[in-house]
Write a structure and sequence with these properties.
206 residues; alpha+beta; eight-stranded mixed sheet; two-stranded antiparallel sheet; elongated
Length: 206
């Protein structure tokens, strides 16, 4: 029976997106979950019934401070912690690495690069059938001797609209993402027919 982690629901940052709702997990929370289960096998599921091969390596952990200005003119800053997974070609392995091994790699990284505890965690992965991309850890569950991280894709958002504001203006001071007003219909009169009618014999136009 699969058990959902209660810890996954703590320290979660909710990002509202158009048509989507993506939950992101902070580095402090993610690492804390790993620390609770050092003896389990660490597995990643990147799509329905598709798993990162057990021979994967954690090749690097990146910390990326990001600064942006959205279309509503608001400056945004956040940090992402990106864990990169790589599967060597031709290498087969029945069981994935232990959580404890992943923690030892994290320890090596943090001795040289202190990681922001509030950084948003992403997992970077790709193979010959799956283009490399960065995904969010979704549910983290215990399945027998495995700690399974279910990866979810990112989604595009308009931050201005998501926070209830407007999305900037165009050169006519109209909001660029606001619904466009329906243009009034113009009725065209048949002036040619009218002109021919006034110049018929007896019409009095000449």
């Amino acid at each position: 029976m699969l058990k959902k982690f209660e810890a996954i629901h703590r320290n979660i940052t909710i990002i509202n997106r158009i048509m989507n709702k993506i939950e992101t997990i902070h580095w402090e929370t993610f690492k804390g979950i790993l620390l609770q289960h050092p003896d389990l096998d660490l597995q990643f599921q990147y799509a329905a019934d598709k798993w990162v091969d057990a021979s994967y390596h954690i090749t690097e952990i990146k910390q990326a401070p990001i600064t942006s200005v959205d279309c509503g003119g608001v400056k945004n800053t956040w940090t992402e912690i990106i864990v990169q997974l790589w599967v060597p070609e031709g290498q087969q392995q029945l069981r994935s690495m232990k959580v404890n091994k992943a923690l030892s790699i994290i320890d090596i990284v943090e001795k040289m690069l202190p990681l922001d505890p509030n950084g948003i965690v992403k997992i970077e992965f790709g193979n010959s059938q799956f283009d490399t991309r960065q995904m969010f850890p979704g549910e983290i569950i215990i399945d027998d001797e495995n700690l399974v991280v279910d990866l979810r894709p990112d989604a595009v958002q308009c931050k201005a609209i998501a926070r209830g504001g407007s999305c900037g203006t165009n050169d006519k001071d109209k909001e660029c993402c606001a619904p466009t007003a329906e243009k009034p219909k113009i009725v065209l009169k048949n002036l040619v027919v009218a002109a021919e009618a006034c110049c018929t014999p007896g019409g009095g136009c000449c």
